[in-house]
Amino acid sequence: MKIQIPADVPKGMQKEYEKNFNLATRNTGKLMLFAGDQKIEHLNDDYIGTTKEGYKISEDDADPEHFFRIASKSVIGAFAGQLGLISRYGRDYKDVNYIIKMNSKTHLVKVDQAEQKSYSLVDFEDVLEFKKNSGLKIVGIGYTVYIGSENEAEMLAEAGRLVTWAHQNGLITVLWMYPRGRAVKDEKDPHLIAGAAGVALCLGTDFAKVNYPKQEGMKDKERAECFKEAIKAAGRTKVITAGGSSKDPKSFLQETYDQIHISGCMGNATGRNIHQRPLDEAIRLCAAISAITLAGKDVAFAYEVYTGKRKFSL
């Protein structure tokens, strides 16, 4: 697979960039990202009790090490989490590819109280030191930008610098691109999501994580068709979709298939749909998602992987 290396990757770092890109995408060019950054984002709401949709959260999920057990035992591209989280468990799970999530905020401050903002928790130099000293497979960094917030200028500036610094050091980048703030009337508007994907391209990132568009009365195939606007707007930046809240596994796998095979997106970033399940089920669902995302398998095949009737590995 030929990799398009961004021009801000120095010649001496191109092999390092290729190595990290191939590790994260499992040599497919597509990204199956297991998202574990919500320990800050949603506090403990996602890890105990029952979801808003009525799904019981597995008791396994109360232990943060659940993330790492899943990531090390199933088929994923990379696991995304804050540096501090990864530093506490990473040495016991050195086989996992890691993406350091640079910024995070809690969900306590609502838009009607203050405009959304989220700045880096650590400096980029801290990431380089961590990569060097820990011996872990740090393949890239991630950062959230809230398009439409009054604070977007600061986040855009920080994201742009981080993408450049990461590329200069051979790391890949993923930008979480979420329209949010009082100026945003509909966060799931297809045209607005396409705009956010285009901003991600202009920031130079390798992957843009966006929400799957949704409007009232829109059918599943219509969602997949309208999502094509975002894929085109992102150009050479690869779009991946946020998994969102817990769903029925078969419906989730069908949605994943449509996003890739109808819309043309290049992967997904899934958190709650994976980690809220017991360990064995979470491992099987990871493998099922990767079967569609990384190997182009159909929903029937992936569902049999999820139910344990088939095995899948890369």
Relative strand content:
5-15%
Spatial strand order of the main sheet = 1-2-3-4-5-6-7-8
- How would a textbook summarize the main sheet? 8 strands, parallel, barrel
CATH architecture: Alpha-Beta Barrel
- Quickly count the domains: 1
Q: Tally the helices: what do you get? A: 13
CA distance, first residue to last residue? 16 Å
- CATH evolutionary superfamily: Aldolase class I
User: How many strands?
Assistant: 8
Please state the structural category.
alpha/beta
CATH class: Alpha Beta
Order of helices and strands: HEHHEHEHEHEHEHHEHEHHH
Q: Which parts are unreliable, with pLDDT below 50 for 5 consecutive residues or more?
A: none
CATH topology: TIM Barrel
Write down the Rg.
18 Å
Helix content: 40-55%
Q: Any idea what the shape is?
A: globular
Average of the residue pLDDT scores: 97
Task: Describe how the helices and strands are arranged.
Elements: H1 14-25, E1 31-35, H2 38-41, H3 65-73, E2 78-81, H4 83-89, E3 97-101, H5 124-134, E4 137-147, H6 152-168, E5 172-179, H7 190-203, E6 207-210, H8 220-226, H9 228-234, E7 238-242, H10 249-263, E8 267-270, H11 272-275, H12 279-293, H13 299-307
Parallel strand pairs: 1-2, 1-8, 2-3, 3-4, 4-5, 5-6, 6-7, 7-8
Helix pairs in contact: 3-12, 7-9, 8-10, 10-12, 10-13, 12-13
